Amino acid sequence: xxxxxxxxxxxxxxxxxxxxxxxxxxxxxxxxxxxxxxxxxxxxxxxxxxxxxxxxxxxxxxxxxxxxxxxxxxxxxxxxxxxxxxxxxxxxxxxxxxxxxxxxxxxxxxxxxxxxxxxxxxxxxxxxxxxxxxxxxxxxxxxxxxxxxxxxxxxxxxxxxxxxxxxxxxxxxxxxxxxxxxxxxxxxxxxxxxxxxxxxxxxxxxxxxxxxxxxxxxxxxxxxxxxxxxxxxxxxxxxxxxxxxxxxxx
Length: 250
What we know:
CATH architecture of the largest domain: 3-Layer(aba) Sandwich
CATH superfamily of the largest domain: Response regulator
CATH topology of the largest domain: Rossmann fold
Structural class: alpha/beta
Helix content: 25-40%
Strand order of the largest sheet: 2-1-3-4-5
Number of strands: 15
Shape: elongated
Distance between the termini: 44 Å
Radius of gyration: 20 Å
Strand content: 25-35%
Number of helices: 8
Largest sheet: 5 strands, parallel
């Protein structure tokens, strides 16, 4: 029996990588691919795969919301770049995960565990339900700590307009000023609620509520103009346009 597998990841290169890694595994049949949450739910309900290789951070719905929306839970191998709190939960619940960037060998290890689950007909749904409950209250930040003149200031996340890389430092830009931070953009993207913050470029994250205008630019890119006194203009990269349209259709 083939293991009917659905690949879900918002990065096309990541999907291609998983497909390539799975090509030599004759027990696996890839039945579909999805690039965002809503598409993943629709395909999973239609195809009813045995296994989903599921990204966590995606536009529209994250991986946890996808699972909560399914009427039948298949076996799931999670993929994540930086959700370390989730990784700890997976380990406690005896689930597997792929920490990006992962190797072909690491994926094969995860598949061996998946095959053992399927062979013994174990109830994966019960373990997954326990995991989802443990992650129901995600610890998204409400405050960001920054240093100023020997003091630590707590910024309200709602006041943050955007966060970006400038030379060798990342800066948090709020309505009250700009402060350097030691956190990477990947760490900040993980810690900020994706319902309110969106990574428009590898070097910038914006507060969705702060977006004033979207201006077509060269080569399929767009410019994002923020509701700031300076009317800050930031690049929305072409590869992020499709995901951004999930939030602001045009």
